[in-house]
């Protein structure tokens, strides 16, 4: 496993690290070295990680951490606890009593990414707090590689009736936590998805659809992307920077599943 952050104590949170910006090539060991939660995200220059009032680790962004203009010119990201306002919004929508993880075991990431329009945008992502640092590092590497995402945002509540009545959608949001059952082209299952644990991420879902073993895709707007020999914007391919980056943090790609393929899906457990 390459997740080196597990071997370091939170007490090292004040350490300063200088990293070489990531490229499409696999990073050298010194490019992955981290000594505190939130450190190690590739940036041009970094400041020490700090702990905010909520206890969430603030990821180094730039030498001028309070300058939003500077932050939007390069990769920048941070990790925080779920704020009360978001926790209230999640209750009864993407989280409910009986979900496999409590809200306090989740973390809110905010980071810069490249949009399909070539502009730098900033979006939120809720993940399992134990994986937050590694996930942020991964998106930092995708930023440095120039990989675009249609939109990064929070998941919507899953409603089986709405899913059945509205099979076609151009919505393509990169998202993670959503306490729901696993969903296949055939329909919802009866078991919790890995998204329910904050241990799975779907990247550009329309451009990387869930494809049945016979090649059928439920969403007609995603059907042009069934042919994986195409190199269209936002698509993920075997061995590319997205697959390699998530492999670096120990996450597996649904494009490697036998039979059905879930090209959008990355998860810690491989499910």
Label this structure with key terms:
271 residues; single chain; three-stranded antiparallel sheet; alpha+beta; 6 helices; globular
Question: Can you walk me through this structure?
Answer:
- The chain is of the alpha+beta class.
- It has a domain of 108 residues.
- 16% of the residues lie in helices and 18% in strands.
- The strands form five sheets. It has a three-stranded antiparallel β-sheet with strand order 3-4-5, covered by helices on one side.
Short description:
By secondary structure, the protein is of the alpha+beta class. It contains six helices and twelve strands.
What is the strand and helix layout of this fold?
Blueprint: H1 29-32, E1 50-51, E2 57-58, H2 68-71, E3 77-81, H3 84-90, E4 106-114, E5 120-128, H4 132-145, H5 160-165, E6 181-184, E7 187-192, E8 200-202, E9 210-211, H6 241-248, E10 252-253, E11 261-262, E12 265-267
Which strand-content bin applies to the residues? Answer: 15-25%
Helix and strand content put the structural class at alpha+beta
Q: Which sequence of SSEs, written as H and E, runs from N to C? A: HEEHEHEEHHEEEEHEEE
Number of helices: 6
Which strands sit side by side, in order, in the main sheet?
Answer: 3-4-5
Instruction: Evaluate the radius of gyration.
Output: 18 Å
Q: What composes the largest sheet?
A: 3 strands, antiparallel
State mean pLDDT (0 to 100 scale). Answer: 77
* DSSP strand count: 12
Helix content: 10-25%
